[in-house]
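Ligand: inosinic acid. Inputs:
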Amino acid sequence: MHTDIGEVLITEEQISVRVKELAEKISKDYKGRCPVFVGVLKGCVFFLSDLLKHITIDCNVDFMCLSSYSGTQSTGIVRTVLDLKESIEDRDVVIVEDIVDSGLSMEYLLHNFRSRRPKSIKICTMLDKPAARKVNISVKYAGFEIPEKFVVGYGLDFNELYRNLPYIGVIKKSVVEKDKTCR
Ligand code: IMP
Ligand code: MG
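Predicted complex:
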């Protein structure tokens, strides 16, 4: 385990089993359609690639990059840093997110996407922190519900660190207090 991690919340094995289950469910639900999976960068990277490997129906992939977090705190102001390459008009869209926390990012994205007239939009998130919710967001597919803790790994970062960890863990308080960065 990385020395900055105090506790592993979800192991690599648990993630792998759950991601496969989600992919099977989605493949079944969207049978006969060709959904577009929109990965929300950067946190979605591991989840999206692992999920897609187990999707058994035809699909497209696109990306958005949103920004709202600084350290362990959400600024509450969501911005589009990178937009979709393709139109989603009349498409079945599955948003692939690392974590739904306050829900503000997903509220922003749903609002933004709805104006582009897709056929449907659903949210698929690796982690769901329902206790942290500030707005009511309906999550169709969730890997794991977790308590209101700041987590890292499997794509999730603290100051752009720890995305590479293959498990999901909680960083030590001392590391947060030191505000560790690579810069
Ligand atoms: P929101 O609060 O639901 O808008 O979450 C916005 C984004 O903040 C998520 O998509 C993550 O990228 C990031 N985020 C929220 N909670 C955590 C966390 O516990 N660890 C790392 N990133 C997080
Ligand atoms: Mg995210």
